Every structure is written in structure tokens, then in C-alpha cells.
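In response to a reviewer's request, we include the raw inputs and outputs for one of the modeled complexes. The two entities were modeled together in a single run.
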Amino acid sequence: MSGALSLDFAMTQETIDLWADLSGDFNPLHVDEEYAATTPFGGTIAHGHTALAILTRLFVEAFREDWMTRGEFTDVKFRSPVRPGRSYRAVAERVDAADGDDPEWTIAVRDADGTECVVGRAFLRQGVAS
Amino acid sequence: MKQDIWWLRAATLDEPLEAVATVLDREERDGRRSVLIETVVSQGDVRVMSIQAKLGWPT
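The model returned the following C-alpha cells for the whole complex.
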């Protein structure tokens, strides 16, 4: 598959709270708006893997079971907070690769101003025994 | 924080998952301390997912 994958989404406190329930990570920076307002972030922020899960959705929808057994994210960095009440775009852009190389994408979650909140690389490994 | 994530197998429903985190490396240089942690999620003897995370902070 060539070209770019993308998905627009809005982060909400409800999504963050659901992720806290799912992961068991109830750090007040994520779920306590009163406490989070006293931190340098000035408000609650999403768990890093909440945004990463949106990127994962791009690949699962595109590659289904293949992604679940051969997918890989590398060099994932959380550069800027993802905040409730704001809109974001998750994008994966195909990197030109030599014949025989594993398919590769750059991945990012960007806010409406284009600020990169999460960045990294994705691979669909060939010939990996699952 | 930097992470590498591998999906190894699809997890099956209704089977318990176990996550084990291991510190692989610690480093301190140039006024920063960092630690490399590997977390493996398994279902019985089957490895479902592996995450290597490197966390760093100023000393």
C-alpha cells in the first residue's frame, strides 16, 4: 500500500478517563482537572498511549491481522501534550524504500497548528515468524 | 521518552494477560540519567507484545 494514511480526531476528557480505566493509570495529571491546573501543563493531558492508539488504528484498519503480527513502531517520542477539547490529525506517510526493504512510514500526531505531539516510525516486517 | 513497540501475536479473548517490566540498562552522563525498560506482555507462554522504553531526566 502506498500513499498516506490519516485520521482526524478530537481528544476528550471522557476518552482520557476511559483510557485511565483501561490501563489503570490514574495519574492526576490525566484525570484530575483541579490538580492538573496547578502543574506546568496547566490542565489535564492525555496519556501518551492514547494518541499512539489512534496511530495504531490507522495501521490496523489498513492491514488488519498483518499489522497485529508484523507491525512495529520505533523511535516513538512524545514531544508535546495532547489535550482534551482540541482537534488532532494522526498521519502515516510512506517512506521510499529500496526493493526488498520492509515497508516504512513516518508517523505523527499533529495539532491544528501543525505542532507534532507524537512522532516515530512504523514498519511492516516481512518474513517475521509469528 | 523514546519507545519501540512490537506486536508479536494477537491476544485471545478471556485469557489473562501478564505484563513484566525489566530494567535492561541504566546510564548517567552529561548531567542526565536514563533507564532502558523492556515490558513484555504475555498470554501463558505466548509473547503478545514487547515495548522498550528509554526514559531520561536531568540529574
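As requested, we also summarize the result in words. The two ends of chain A are 21 Å apart (CA to CA). DSSP finds five helices and five strands in chain A.
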